[in-house]
Amino acid sequence: MFQDLLAQLHTLVSGLEPWQQVLALVPAGAIPFIESYLGSFLGSSLGIHPALAIPAAVAGNLIATFLAIALSGRARDAVTDGRRRRKGGATGRDAKPSRFRAKVATALDKYGVPGVALLGPFVVASQLSGPALVALGAARRKVYLWMGISIVVWGIAFGIFGSLFLAAIA
């Protein structure tokens, strides 16, 4: 299914004019699990110069991820403010945390925000891991910083890999 999505994106983008291909990488980079790394790889492997493909895919991923982090931060603020207003801070909720939340919490304890941000794209989309870090109480500035670094680094690495891949098969 995921390979079909990549194949469809490849077909869609390859049929566009060069300037449209670059613009198409912005929303492609915003798609969870495509993100900056596969978006920049897709663009570079289509023959779009990496100096154009990488920033386009990175921009889409940064916008989507930072928006998700901002929204989750506001939601966390609303929940914690509500708890403070109630006496004793009781939530009335004894539910067991989800498997995803437990996984992110364990990774946060083990690797910290930098580790989760840099390794996270291989486990879960940055649009999910960034907000999860904020929801678990990680400092927002640190999450923004490290998610941004991760998105840029992986975008550059896979964009270069896409160019090398294209050169190898050409």
TrEMBL record:
<feature type="transmembrane region" description="Helical">
    <location>
        <begin position="143"/>
        <end position="169"/>
    </location>
</feature>
<feature type="transmembrane region" description="Helical">
    <location>
        <begin position="48"/>
        <end position="71"/>
    </location>
</feature>
<protein>
    <recommendedName>
        <fullName>Small multidrug efflux protein</fullName>
    </recommendedName>
</protein>
<keyword id="KW-0472">Membrane</keyword>
<keyword id="KW-0812">Transmembrane</keyword>
<keyword id="KW-1133">Transmembrane helix</keyword>
